[in-house]
Amino acid sequence: MHTSSPLDHSAHASDGAGAGIAIAIDGPAGSGKSTVSRLVAEALDGGILDTGAMYRAVTWSCLEHDVDLADREAVAAVAEDLDLALGTDPAGATVAVGGTDITAAIRTERISSSVSAVATNTLVRAILQRRQREVLFATAAERGFCVAEGRDITTVVAPDAPVRVLLTASDEERMRRRAAELELEDSEDTRARMADQVLRRDRDDSTVSEFLTAAEGVQTVDTTGLGIEDVVEQVLMLVAAAESAQEDAAEQEAASRPAQPAVPAPTAAAGAADGPSDEDIESALRAGLGDYELDDEDLALLEGEEGEDPRRGIPRNLPVVAVVGRPNVGKSTLVNRILGRREAVVEDRPGVTRDRVFYEAEWTGTDFWLVDTGGWEDRVQGIAYRVAEQAEVAVSLADVVMFIVDANVGITTTDEQLLKVLRSANVPIVLVANKVDDQRGELEAAALWNLGLGEPHPVSALHGRGSGDLLDAVVSAMPEEGRGAPVDHGPRRVALVGRPNVGKSSLLNRLAREQRVVVDEVAGTTRDPVDEKIVLGGREWTFVDTAGIRRRVLQSQGADYYASLRTRAALDRAEVAVVLLEASEPVSTQDLKIIDMVLESGRALVLAFNKWDLLDEERHKALEREIERDLAHVAWAPRVNISAHTGRHAEKLVPAIEAALESWDRRIPTGRLNAFLGQLVAAHPHPLRGGKQARILFATQARTRPPRFVIFASGFLEHGYRRFIERRLREDFSFTGSPIVIGVRIREKRRR
Prior knowledge:
Layout (H helix, E strand, L loop, with lengths): L8 H7 L5 E6 L6 H12 L2 E4 H14 L7 H10 L2 E3 L8 E3 L2 E2 L7 H4 L2 H5 L2 H22 L1 E5 L3 H5 L5 E6 L2 H11 L6 H18 L13 E4 L5 H29 L11 H7 L3 H12 L6 H8 L16 E5 L6 H9 L17 E7 L2 E7 L9 H16 L2 E7 L6 H13 L3 E6 L4 H7 L11 E2 L8 H11 L14 E6 L6 H9 L17 E7 L2 E7 L12 H16 L2 E7 L6 H13 L2 E7 L6 H14 L8 E3 L11 H13 L4 H14 L12 E8 L4 E6 L5 H15 L7 E6 L6
Helix pairs in contact: 2-11, 4-7, 9-10, 13-25
């Protein structure tokens, strides 16, 4: 059916429309995108781009060649290499792959029921979206108009299209249309199948695309109850308005530069080449950031943002900072605060720490060894004497000493005796007044000036108050070259974690090809973390077999309790955690808590489903549902299906671990990051709240391992919007297997 147009097509054909007008149409399944797009293209005598046909063509090719649609990388490889000929003639847009016409084949129910697995593959989406943009703007330049319909067309593929439309319709209407398209009779079975195809597809696609609500600048047209001619007419009126605006802009430009001949607008490809570079965007945003109030920490971050990870520099002797004080003044709590993780064991009773324990720490780009010590006491015997002796040894090895006192108690006789020991060591001393939670506590801490050690630094190790100023003072007291040895990272460290009896030790033995650790059917055989150097995939790794983490760790006693603590410490020393789950049993609450513990530690993550060889068809389907329901928050983690007992697919662990570590180490250049966010915000601006809209001013990657991004904004960014940014970061920069941390710093404009 051909619908008349309100446009004078002959005028556009004769005078040329520069790069032409691109029309982008999106909407949920069954909203009429394909039909409306074809009729609009016919009315304009322009081209048409069916982006959905691209996904269907990839699906068809995968099914024809028995490619597993769940294998994301394999499907992406098909999309990248696909020999696809996509017609743009609305009278008969054909689709061919490798010379084979598949126009009819891709519209069958077989393809419709499988295409979501391809459409939700973010690797495929990035490949096809690039091809879609090229075809859309090239066709618009050639034919004057081009209509494109499909997911993300109005926001990601063509956010700069002059006409962007979101078609909607009720669920019942969309299911009825899809059934009619497939020539199915109206029945309960048909309605159930259409609900699965239409509504499930929308739910699946909405996890990677925004099409249920219109982005800023996108016009919404509800097609429920409208005839197809009415919908087409509305879209053509939007095109007419866009063409008029384009002609007005061309006339104004010509009037402002009468001496120069008119130059056709560049195509999208040329515009991309002539547009601002990532570096230009960064420079402009950085200059704009100067109008806002920035503190010293902001400036330090911006100055050092492109520096390499300090742990990768030239090996040097690191300074040693010893944390000393009498028992129960909060030394280990402060150590954990400085490390940013729960490394040292803390309990509300004196004497928990006994040995001197070295930790690798960092502040503002400076690496150092942090030494936690036991509580020092004078004139004691037995184990208390040995603890005090270890503390004194730590002081003798240190370049800087943090002397911790309890500000609420004040200086005790034990503190005075310890201070004599510290003075005799002739080491710079930084006085720390701990347990200062308010301004009143700061006034009480000022009395510590009487010790003659200089300024007392009031902190709350428990809440973090004052810890930044304290570390600044510690770093300034450090020598350039310290007494500590350089950091020897050795092979990459992999922690095997999971609940008891899930097969961690069996897997370690299988990877080592020998009986390295004790394996027994009795749960809890392993208690101490076991480090084993193993060669896999041509390189050496350090695998750490850990004790199974029980459901109620805090209620455990004796060996189980301390085994759990050592497991947590082993995880913090690792770089990537392989969490073993038993595929033959439901995903448990304990499994989820262990995964959350890995996320809290900031380690890269790989999920390994053990005992895969024991699964039957029914359990396999149930497991997929559990993964979709319970593990959606770690959908970015690589999955490996293995059997520790038989060794099945154990070799697939190495590529998964390598991918996770690569993401964990990844750094995005500041220019590229800001260009990415600029495009993202243009397509999906932050929602208005209270009549105001938060604006992203600048962004930088502060750290790797895991990647930590800092966004400077003019207002609060909602949690949902941060999750959206994280999801797009993962899609565009392939952060597979690594957690991402996004921090937002709200900054106000300087007062003139």
